[in-house]
Amino acid sequence: MEAIAAYENKHTLPRDWINYAISKSAPNGYWQRLERGEIEMNQDFFKGFTADLRNEQVWRDYHTSFRNSKKELKDVANPTQLGDHVSLKAEAANTRPTNQDRGSQGPGGSDSNHPPSKEPSSPRPSLSKLAKDTTIGDPVSIESEEVAQSSSNISPSVNGQSTPSSSPSPPQAASTLNSLPPLPEIDGESLFWSMMDHSRKPDSYVFPALLRLRKLSPKERPILAALSNTVIFPPNHPYNRLSDSKESDLRSQFDIFIASAEVGMRKPSADIYKLTLGKLDKIDRERDGSGITAEDCLFLDDIGENLKTAKDLGMRTIKVVLGKTWRAVKELEQATGLEMMDEKTRRSKL
Hints:
Layout: H1 2-10, H2 17-24, H3 30-35, H4 43-52, H5 56-77, H6 79-82, H7 89-93, E1 154-156, E2 162-164, H8 188-199, H9 206-214, E3 225-228, E4 256-259, H10 260-263, H11 270-286, E5 298-301, H12 304-313, E6 316-319, H13 325-336, H14 343-349
Parallel strand pairs: 3-4, 5-6
Antiparallel strand pairs: 1-2
Helix pairs in contact: 1-8
């Protein structure tokens, strides 16, 4: 999530630490319980959320296992040789890159041991499912978040100390907490509101695509559903107010809007996907359709484990890469045969 990355950069925190800490508090950490609507958003929540972010055992695990495994994958991908961070897909997939990933070395610039395959074009689905969390989002993103971080010669670390990225020090085995950098003192309440403020801004590519879909006739456009991990704000909080403009109100753009805190379930639990499928099926049958199954759905998300659940259920999926969301819109156009970009945007991204 972009808000978390921005917060880590601003406070010189190790990259992915916040995501890692939140994910390790699952399934019953304060963040997860808030998104399931089990606890109220009050000072008890902020105190507990802060404690989850200051767990010494998780901090130790982050340094002795997670960071070392990420470093090994980055070394395998060798971004300085590859020339761009897209090639770090090997890191997200936890695999070694092929020669084709390295952009050379085999005949015709591809992996000589693995010639490119020709995949059949996908048929147009009976349903597109836009589930990009532009309202709240989900911080649990460490499994397959993309690595769109700028190439700089300085890498931030804890306590504001900087280390030249061109000459990294060898990994140190940290067997005790005393051998680790100090545990970052993150204010959970400050982080939370920074994330909420950031999430209020509609994506500049996904949201316009949603509006274009919405303007199609009922016969042309697919059923649109949102499956969002959300929270419930305190009574009279400004974020509870609906937008003055119907067009800028996110919920009104969907036929179905499932909010995790309102139904007591959250992604990536399969139960909330099945709940959404049931509602989609009902709407389609009310429109004299033959019903909706998982195979009819096209699911978009920026979180790897959310996409995995959708795929396991039989849905087709599109990964929304933060900072490069226009790519997901182009994939959606190809999958549906519908135009969702204006010509100016399309020309700029060709």
